[in-house]
Amino acid sequence: MGSITDPTRQAGYEPVSMPMPAPETVVYQPNSLWRSGGRSFFRDQRAARVGDILTVMIDIADSAKVDNTTKRSRANAEGAGLDNFLGFESSLSKVLPNAVDPGNLVKADSSSSNEGSGSVDRQEKVELTVAAVVTQVMPNGNLVIDGHQEVRVNNELRELSVDGIVRPEDISNTNTIKHTQIAEARISYGGRGQISDVQQPRYGQQLFDIIMPF
Predict the structure, then answer these.
(1) Which of 3, 22, 76, 150 has a 20 to 30 A CA-CA distance from 206?
(2) How far is 99 from 93, CA to CA, in rounded Å?
(3) Does residue 38 belong to any structural domain of this protein?
(4) What are the φ/ψ torsions at residue 197 (nearest 5 degrees)?
(5) Both 155 and 196 in a single domain?
(6) Do 43 and 109 share a domain, yes or no?
């Protein structure tokens, strides 16, 4: 194993820049052991300001099953004739072909049918935990959070990200919150690497699927 070294001296090191609250002026009160703004006994340790960290508990266990069947049929028939019209029905042969039957001048029929069926059977289960940073405090007090996590195992990189808006009242006393309590939640879990690359079709096959109409 490698030796412990100063990470700031490694090649490619860049300091982290994150949203932070404005610095507070330290004021020491007479006859007091604690300074203002200090993380002391009676201060709420839950995330409340820009730069604070909040743990998000992701436990997705969704299932959906839909089965629809539709069947429709219709048949129409129309007929019209002119057997008697003050004796003028015999004059139709002078205007129309001789094969015209006054009793059966118009006859139309149509039929249509439609049958369709569809089904959806989906199950999803994701259990993850990620720490997010408060990036904004909205005027009504709600917190905007943004969290990202990357884990590399050999040549496979797994990425997890979560974004959304939370209420300070929903944060538990252990500074955690469930994903179901995040408004406008955007949760993404995926990865990239050799295994993910093998599971994808080759570029030529993807292009072939795009240009082929069938």
Answers:
(1) 150
(2) 8
(3) yes
(4) -70, -35
(5) yes
(6) no
pLDDT digits (tens, 9 = 90+) for 123-148: 888 888 999 999 999 999 999 999 99
Together in a domain, 54 and 129:
yes
Distance CA 19, CA 63 (A): 38
- CA torsion sign, 86 to 89 to 90 to 96? positive
CA distances for 43 relative to 46, 47, 53, 152, angstroms: 9, 11, 15, 37
Report residue 56 as tokens. 């998000």
Structure tokens at 178: 């469930």
Return d(Cα 151, Cα 141) in angstroms, integer.
Answer: 33
Residues 6+ apart with CB under 8 A from 139: none
CB 192 within 8 A of CB 157: yes
d(CA 139, CA 143): 9
4-31: buried (b, 16+ CB within 10 Å) or exposed (e) per residue?
eeeeeeeeeeeeeeeeeeeeeeeeeeee
- Using alpha carbons only, what angle is made at residue 96 by residues 93 and 100, rounded to the nearest 5 degrees? 70
Q: Tell me: the pLDDT tens digits for 196-211?
A: 777 778 878 888 788 8
Phi and psi angles of residue 193, each rounded to the nearest 5 degrees, phi first: 155, -165
> What range does the domain containing 44 cover?
32-64+122-208
One domain, residues 60 and 105: no
148, β-bridge pairs: 161
Q: Do 38 and 95 share a domain, yes or no?
A: no
